Amino acid sequence: MIRFLALALLFATPVVAEDELPACTTWSAQMQEDEGGEVFTASACATDRPDAFMMLTCSAGEVFIRYDLAAGAERSPDLGERAGVDFTIGVNIQRVPMTYQEMDGLFAGTVPAGGPLVTLMRSGDSMTLADGDGRYPIHTFSLRGSSGSLGALLERCF
Question: What is the pTM of this model?
Fold first, then answer.
């Protein structure tokens, strides 16, 4: 009976092929409208939750990350809430301090344009994001197209 239940669960779990993922899971880089006008942005959505977006902009050697950490959560973030967000690529983990921004409902943080996180994001296959306190769901991002998109972003950064 237990074997039957295990097999039933295995076959009931949907497997999504990479070519069936929404187009937003592949990184892109383009001009996007922001509150101050258009800004060059590299972006992608989570493979497990296409309404969870990450957007990166760059200026003066700093990459600005905006991410919907609370997508799919059972709680809403508090105004000005801070979270240490772990970006895991392969065996490497980079923690980025981020703060909830009420205006657009995203968490925001910065990292150096030439730093290890950006380098890792340009070389890996996938990345998981989780807050260090475990209050929000873990999301996975494909890094397909990230090297070219982040390269184009960095060209405009310095």
Answer: 0.85
